[in-house]
Structures are given as structure tokens and as C-alpha cells.
Amino acid sequence: MMSLIIQKIKTITTQHFSLLKQADPDEDMINSYIYRAFLFECLYNNKIVGVLALNQTKENTLEILNISVLEEYQHQGIGSSLLVFTENFAKENHYSTLEVCTGSTSIWQLYFYQKHGFRITDIQTDYFLKNYSTPIFEHGIQLKDQLCLKKEI
User: Fold this and answer.
1) Which parts of the sequence belong to the N-acetyltransferase domain (predicted)?
2) Percent of the chain with pLDDT over 90
């Protein structure tokens, strides 16, 4: 297991923004939440390898807005470490529910969140058609719907 440091982001850099865009290609969407979110970076050997954006949506609910790991560091447990960090942060700050939304064609993300105990609770039909100016394609399929998942902690 890698020795990771997860810490609050003090100043958003182009490197942070690039990682956020990896998980959400719409810059306007990212700009709509980065200044109100709890932002964290994940460091490995002093290199930023991941980012995490969280937001309170209800009194006891924390939403994962963005979680991203550099491609060359994926499948090494960093995303799971960021989720464990999220759960600990939530518990320490008296949240009892975690939420996350992802695309219906985001197969690996759906697998990842369900593997970590999240369950699908809602489908927002045509979310990406209504809220994104440029079409998004994953696995050769146009992304249209958003799936929302929840985990009680």
C-alpha cells in the first residue's frame, strides 16, 4: 500500500483543475462548485495524484462532487483511500449520509461506488443533455442520464 497524504487544498492550481476536469469535462460545472466545496488533494512522494471535492447538501448529508486520480496511479487503492478519508471526514463532522452522482455510462465509477457500499437511489433522466453544453461519450455511448447513489455511515 502506498504512503499517501490527503490534505486540504489551500490554493487551486492548474494541476488540481486538470484533475477535476478528468472526472468532469465541463469547466463551467467545476467552477460552479469549487469555491463552495471542501477541497482535498492526495499526495504521493510530494506529487499530486488525486483530488476530492465534497459539499454539504443537507444537514447530515455530504455529497462527493468530484473524485479523481491521475490515470497512471489508478487501480492502486488511491480512490479507495480517498473514499475512506471521505467517510472519516464525514463522521468527524457529524454527517450520517454520503451521496454521489455519476453518469449512467460510467461503468467503472458505478462498480467502484457500489463496491464501497453505495446504492443507487435515483435516476435523473437527461441530466447531461440539459446541464452540459458539449455531448459526453463513454464507451461509445452518449451520456444522457445521471445515477445518484447513497451510503449511510
Assistant:
1) 4-144
2) 97
| CATH number where 23 lies | 3.40.630.30
Kindly report, residue by residue over 109-129, the tens digit of the pLDDT: 999 999 999 999 999 999 999
Q: Answer yes or no: are the C-beta atoms of 85 and 6 closer than 8 Å.
A: yes
In eight-state DSSP terms, residue 22 is H
Find how far residue 137's CA is from the centre of its chain.
Answer: 18
Tally of domains in the chain: 1
Q: Model confidence over 53-70: pLDDT tens digits?
A: 999 999 999 999 999 999
Range of the domain at 112: 4-152
Where helices occur in the chain by DSSP H, the ranges are 14-23, 27-33, 78-92, 107-115, 127-131
- Cell numbers for 95: 454527517
Provide the whole-model pTM: 0.93
Residues 6+ apart with CB under 8 A from 32: none
Would you give the end-to-end CA distance of the chain in angstroms? 24
